[in-house]
Design a protein that fits this description.
The complex is a heterotrimer of chains A (about 230), B (about 230) and C (about 250). Chain A has about 230 residues and is mainly α. Chain A contains nine helices and no strands. Chain A has one domain (about 5-235): MetI-like (MetI-like fold), CATH 1.10.3720.10. Chain A has helices spanning about 10-15, 20-45, 50-65, 70-85, 95-120, 125-135, 140-170, 180-190, 195-225. In chain A, helix 2 crosses helix 5 (about 95-120), helix 6 runs antiparallel to helix 7 (about 140-170) and helix 8 (about 180-190) runs antiparallel to helix 9. The longest helix of chain A has about 30 residues, at about 140-170. Chain A is flat, with a radius of gyration of 22 Å. Chain B has about 230 residues and is mainly α. Chain B has nine helices and no strands. Chain B has helices spanning about 5-15, 15-45, 50-60, 65-85, 100-125, 125-135, 140-170, 180-190, 195-225. In chain C, about 40% of the residues lie in helices and about 25% in strands. Chain C is built from nine helices and ten strands. Chain C has helices at about 45-50, 75-85, 100-110, 115-130, 145-155, 175-190, 200-210, 225-230, 235-250; strands at about 5-15, 15-25, 30-35, 60-65, 65-70, 85-90, 165, 195-200, 210-215, 220-225. In chain C, the strands form two sheets. In chain C, strands 6-7-8-3-9-10 form a six-stranded mixed β-sheet, sandwiched between helices. In chain C, strands 2-1-4-5 form a four-stranded antiparallel β-sheet, covered by helices on one side. Chain C is globular. The chains are: A mainly alpha (about 230), B mainly alpha (about 230), C alpha/beta (about 250). Chains in contact: A-B, B-C. The interface between A and B is large, with 39 and 42 residues.
Chain lengths: ~230, ~230, ~250
Amino acid sequence: MNYTYDFASIPGLILKILHAFPLTMGILLCALAISLTLGAAVAAGTMGRNRFLQSLCKGYISFMRGIPTLVLIFLLYLGMPQALKQLGIDIGSWNKAVFIIATLSLNASANMAEMMRASYLAVDKGQREAAYSVGMKPFTAFRRIIFPQALGIAIPTLGNNIILLFKETSLGFTIGVIDILGRARAISAASFGANKLEVYIASGIIYWIICIVLEQASRLAERAYTKGRKKAAG
Amino acid sequence: MDFGFIMEAFPQIAAAIPVTLLMVFVSAGIGWVLGLAAALVRKNRTPVLSQILAVFVSFMRSVPSVIVLYIAYYVMPAVIYAYGQNIGWAIDINAVPPIAYAIFALTLSQAAYSSEVFRAAIAAVDEGQTEAAYSVGMTRAQALFRIVFPQAFATAMPNLGGLFVGLIKETSLAYYVGVYEITAVANLLSIPKLNFIEAYIMTTVVYEILSFLFNKCFRAGESRLKRFRANAAG
Amino acid sequence: MDYMVKLENIQKSFGDNHILKGVELNIKKGEVVVILGPSGSGKTTLLRTINFLDAADEGSVCVNDFKVDAKKHNKAQVIELRRKTAMVFQNYNLFANKTILENVMEGLVTVKKFKKSDAEEMSRRILAKVGLSERCDFYPAQLSGGQQQRAGIARALILDPDVILFDEPTSALDPELVGEVLSTIKNVAQTGITMIVVTHEIAFAREVATRVIFMEGGKVVEQGPPEALLVHPKEPRTQQFLSRITGISESA
């Protein structure tokens, strides 16, 4: 048995794999936008007056937190088209990226909803009372007083959630989406699997670097946004 | 719905639960001990070692689990083989079951994630607690084990619970390195007659039940560990 | 002359901040020494160098004939020294994860290796003495500051140390709780145990201390019997400090 590796090929592989960067980012941004919207609706539901809606939204969050992303992908990509076909709807020809975006959006929306709920509740009660006391309507109070403060609280968690979401985009390869990991595997397959390890290390490095960039961006955003509002240090 | 398939497949899927749980318990068991040790090394700022750990933690947290699994799957055989040659043994690499690689990768990932949880939890214990322990004559180890850790664990519990349930979900990725755990078994059973909906609904139910049960366990553990906090006990 | 506590040339800096500038102190068995001084004078740091919670940069600490040199101390010596002393903290620092009873038992069981049953009996007895019989099974977070501090005193007392170090034991308390803690400390003083107390309570110093020390700028400025130092201080800096302090306590 012989194991020989060509680690010098890694930088070249990284550049090749990076061709898939735009698609990965596209998937990330779409999933981010949808999960934030969906998350906001779910968060509102958990805090609303309607008891039924409350438990429905809480159940949704707990369900999404219990199901592995991989299983959700299979459910949507393999299971759903089958089910819809029986109803006469054919979605089998849809772009695979749609399914991965749908999966990631559903999955991330639970985290986003939890984040929004926690940040909203973390804003001091007195803030709303103060807003009402100067004559603001509830919506105005939310938009001008509560939301900006909740956003400041949410930024670090939001950064974390975006990083989680970004890492999950890697699961696109399981249904044949040619994103970063998908492309890495395609490159490896083209050389009949000879450089599998190098390819995985190369894609690992790409994810690592992008995550570090996202982390720094989130830290900068937090600092810029909360400047002067938070006590120094801490 | 093909109920015949469900009746036939469910016992086989359920039979894979122990495989999933084996990965979960071994990875969390070893990984968390390593994570605690890593947290202490980084807290003490042990030179060199703590910098290496910081890089390791950053890598493990940034790279998608599936890539870590693949890297372990392709690196470990070479390492084991080289080690075997070193000590003069001819180890048959093919005899090493894939689950060993999966456990190895998941253990390292749990070590990285839990080290951050432990680090924050230990930092949250008031310095005065350690000083008081020293003032009654305790050694460093006594102060850590009798005073600091019990308080830190209470703080860490919710995050550890999150890690644990996340780990259950992550084991589904071991499918890609050839482990016959829940998702793999369901997938294989579904293929001959394309019973995707049935197979993945069953899989979902199994994971939801596991997540629910372990969430309950951790919640119970948390309230037990937190009984010393003011509002917890009567 | 044998001393219970003997400090020689204690020097301590935090970064560029020279806190203690060569403190010498000899304390006989059974003395109750109260250390006064403005904040930043180094009195708390001095106390903490005695049990090496802050290791001095230079000098030596000797408790009951066990001498540790600041410059070449090792872990075993520090632990031995800490086992000869006990400390009562400003913020009580009761072990948050243990009940009041367990807090008091902890040192006996873990450090002195007493049997659990013996330790429990002794702990209950001492908790009764500080008036906490009813609170044995409560956690610290469930008690008032005064009760916590009395438990802290019991935790120190039960170790039968050669000296107890009190670090501003009443500073964190609500005013109405100061009295109960001070009277507990008074009772401890009457047992003849050697005590070093850092405090701002002048009246307490006057009543309980056998000697009062005034510190400023990292040095001992003046020391003597309470009457002499508190009523007829010789040093102008002591006079200044006392007039400020009593001014505050009269207006309060």
